[in-house]
């Protein structure tokens, strides 16, 4: 097996070497044969890799065993297992938690989309030049300063309980909608700052080049600055989205049942904490694919073009 | 006498407290090449940026085809459409392919159709030997190729005037030859150009007019023979002597 890969390896490299030879106009030379030195080096590298893998595996196993013995050997373990890892309650909680999770997911998708759009608008508004735009710029700055500083929980309480208290006609008092609105208010302020940081990292010479081609300020922003800025901030944006996903649970302060609240209800009846563990694991399971997705998107962007 | 494409009248520009351009006068006739030479920091780039309205001048005036473009009432975007610029650092857009870089302005500014812009871009790229790089991203190109793409991008909008800022500064001698050959071709096709350069041999060969800038002032202006052959000012003589010493011959270029 290791032999196979060796053969493949050198084949690929031979192609490369030929391509380079072509460019230099030396294609007439004899085909490339790896030297004894190269073969020896590759053998050494392979042996070293094999050793590293072995060491990593052994050390992981040892660590796992030590942790297992430590936890299960602790005096409180039987009780802890009973209250936190109880199969019976886990089975009872899972359907309820999943039902609640559906609300978290819907909130995440809708709020996430709104947050990205509003954040981008705010960030661009803050970069507008010229006296006409002064009020827009000032408003956007004030908005970001305020909602970035305001604790999310206070924002939620204020919107969920404050807005219905106004008794405005035509305005909903649905805690899900209001809670979602509060999340959008706070998170769009965070995301606006992320976008603005991205816009600022695009070198001014890029804008100058665009302007010198005759593009207007808006066109330079739209075609040259923003595409580069957005690419650069994908990882921090995802971070904020994961954080948003977890905070969707906070809308339950308005009385709606999400995954965490569903777990809490069962725990309240049984005094067993397993449902919380279930809810926690479900959130983790939801985050992992999102992280892999960004990794994939970032990698794809990087393969299309080098460092920007 | 024909109207000059570009005319500068007592242009003055300072950054903070330092005066970078002192009352610069300059005339560029149609289909001619003007070379700006001078030490680092003498104001060559600043002069080009002022012409392209990337910098606002303090006093004086710049005329393009007889129209004053430094009048605050003129539309800077319209002026820039008539002037092509190639920057010293290329400034290609890294998130776009070569073709997208070249067609951006024709499509968005000049509203050319997608196919039309593409055809024209490919034609220009082919002329500069870049036809097989149309779909590559800029970071996969050599310095000389990037510089040529920047030239194509500036040419794609069919500018009245082309400003080239030390376009060979970052290139090795072989690539310098490659890029300078392109400029020579453009001259033969009648393009009006202003070139800031440290390549004295090239300036001598290709320019119709040479301007020696020193501390932001035009110290000497004339044909290459006059400026390089019999410089009148002591400063010019000293500068040319220094350049010679540094191994940049004032004779014909080797390419
Ligand atoms: N944006 C700016 N702010 C402040 N000073 C500036 C700015 N741009 C240029 N300068 C100054 O103006 C002077 C002229 O600069 P300029 O770039 O025009 O020189 P140059 O002749 O192009 O030099 P080089 O040959 O090195 O490119 C320099 O002293 C520089 O420090
Ligand atoms: Mg310069």
Give the secondary structure arrangement, pairings included.
The complex is a heterodimer of chains A (308) and B (255).
Chain A: H1 2-23, H2 36-73, H3 77-84, H4 87-127, H5 134-149, H6 152-165, H7 175-201, H8 204-212, H9 217-232, H10 234-247, H11 259-270, H12 274-304
Helix pairs in contact in A: 4-5, 4-7, 4-10, 4-11, 4-12, 5-7, 6-7, 7-9, 7-10, 8-9, 10-12, 11-12
Chain B: E1 6-15, E2 18-28, E3 33-37, H1 44-51, E4 59-64, E5 67-68, H2 76-81, E6 83-86, H3 98-108, H4 114-127, H5 143-155, E7 161-165, H6 173-188, E8 193-196, H7 200-206, E9 209-214, E10 217-222, H8 224-229, H9 234-245
Parallel strand pairs in B: 3-8, 3-9, 6-7, 7-8
Antiparallel strand pairs in B: 1-2, 1-4, 4-5, 9-10
Bound molecules: adenosine-5'-triphosphate (ATP) and magnesium ion.
The site of magnesium ion has 6 residues of chain B, from helix 1.
Number of strands of chain B: 10
Determine the CATH topology of the largest domain in chain B.
Rossmann fold
The CATH class of the largest domain in chain A: Mainly Alpha
Poorly predicted segments of chain A: 1-25
Can you give the mean pLDDT of chain B?
88
Q: What quaternary form is this? A: heterodimer
- Count helical runs of chain A: 12
Report the principal-axis shape of chain A: flat
Number of strands of chain A: 0
CATH superfamily of the largest domain in chain A: MetI-like
Secondary structural class of chain B: alpha/beta
C-alpha Rg of chain A (nearest Å): 28 Å
Order of adjacent strands in the largest pleated sheet of chain B: 6-7-8-3-9-10
Radius of gyration of chain B, CA atoms, in whole angstroms? 18 Å
**Which shape of chain B, going by the Cα principal axes?**
globular
CATH class of the largest domain in chain B: Alpha Beta
Domain ABC transporter (chain B): 6-240
GO molecular function (chain B): ABC-type amino acid transporter activity; ATP binding; ATP hydrolysis activity
Pfam families (chain B): ABC_tran (PF00005)
Main location (chain B): membrane
């Amino acid at each position: 097996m290791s032999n196979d890969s060796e053969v493949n390896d050198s084949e690929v490299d031979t192609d490369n070497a030929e391509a380079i030879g072509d460019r230099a106009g030396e294609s007439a030379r004899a085909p490339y044969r790896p030297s004894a030195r190269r073969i020896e080096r590759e053998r050494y590298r392979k042996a070293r890799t094999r050793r590293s893998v072995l060491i990593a595996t052994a050390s992981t196993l040892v660590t796992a065993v030590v942790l297992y013995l430590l936890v299960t050997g602790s005096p409180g373990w039987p009780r802890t297992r009973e209250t936190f890892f109880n199969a019976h309650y886990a089975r009872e909680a899972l359907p309820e938690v999943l039902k609640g999770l559906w609300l978290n997911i819907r909130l995440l998708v809708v709020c996430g989309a709104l947050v990205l759009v509003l954040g981008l608008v705010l960030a661009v508004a803050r970069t507008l030049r010229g006296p006409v735009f002064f009020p827009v710029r000032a408003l956007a700055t004030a908005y970001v300063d305020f909602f970035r500083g305001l604790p999310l929980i206070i924002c939620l309480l204020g919107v969920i309980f404050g807005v219905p208290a106004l008794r405005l006609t035509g305005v909903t008092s649905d805690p899900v909608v209001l809670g979602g609105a509060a999340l959008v208010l706070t998170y769009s302020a965070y995301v606006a700052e992320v976008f603005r940081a991205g816009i600022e990292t695009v070198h001014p010479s890029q804008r100058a080049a665009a302007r010198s081609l005759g593009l207007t300020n808006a066109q330079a922003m739209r075609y040259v600055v923003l595409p580069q800025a957005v690419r650069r901030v994908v990882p921090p944006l995802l971070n904020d989205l994961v954080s948003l996903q977890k905070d969707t649970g906070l809308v339950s302060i308005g009385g709606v049942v999400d995954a965490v609240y569903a777990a809490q209800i069962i725990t309240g009846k049984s005094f067993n904490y397993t449902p919380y563990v279930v809810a926690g694991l479900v959130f983790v399971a939801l985050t992992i694919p999102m992280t892999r997705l960004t990794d994939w998107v970032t990698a794809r962007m990087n393969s299309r073009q080098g460092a920007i | 006498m024909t109207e000059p494409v570009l005319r500068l009248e007592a242009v003055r520009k300072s950054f903070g407290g330092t005066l970078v351009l002192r009352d610069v006068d300059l005339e560029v006739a149609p289909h001619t090449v003007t070379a700006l030479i001078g030490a680092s920091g003498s104001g060559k780039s600043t002069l080009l940026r002022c012409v392209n309205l990337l910098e606002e001048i303090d006093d004086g005036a710049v005329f393009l085809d007889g129209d004053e473009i430094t009048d605050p009432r003129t539309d800077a975007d319209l002026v820039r459409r008539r002037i092509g610029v190639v920057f010293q650092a290329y400034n290609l857009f890294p998130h776009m392919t070569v073709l997208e870089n070249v067609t951006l302005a024709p499509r968005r500014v000049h509203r050319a159709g997608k196919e039309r812009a593409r055809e024209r871009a490919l034609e220009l790229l082919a002329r500069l030997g870049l036809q097989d790089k149309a779909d590559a991203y800029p970071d996969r190109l050599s310095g000389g190729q990037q510089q040529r793409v920047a030239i194509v991008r500036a040419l794609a909008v069919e500018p009245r005037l082309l400003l080239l800022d030390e376009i060979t500064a970052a290139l090795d001698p072989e690539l310098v030859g490659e890029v300078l050959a392109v400029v020579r071709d453009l001259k033969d096709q009648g393009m009006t150009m202003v070139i800031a350069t440290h390549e004295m041999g090239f300036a001598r060969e290709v320019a119709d007019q040479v301007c020696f800038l020193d501390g932001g002032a035009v110290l000497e202006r004339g044909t290459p023979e006059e400026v390089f052959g019999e410089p009148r000012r002591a400063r010019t003589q000293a500068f040319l002597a220094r350049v010679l010493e540094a191994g940049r011959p004032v004779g014909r270029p080797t390419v």
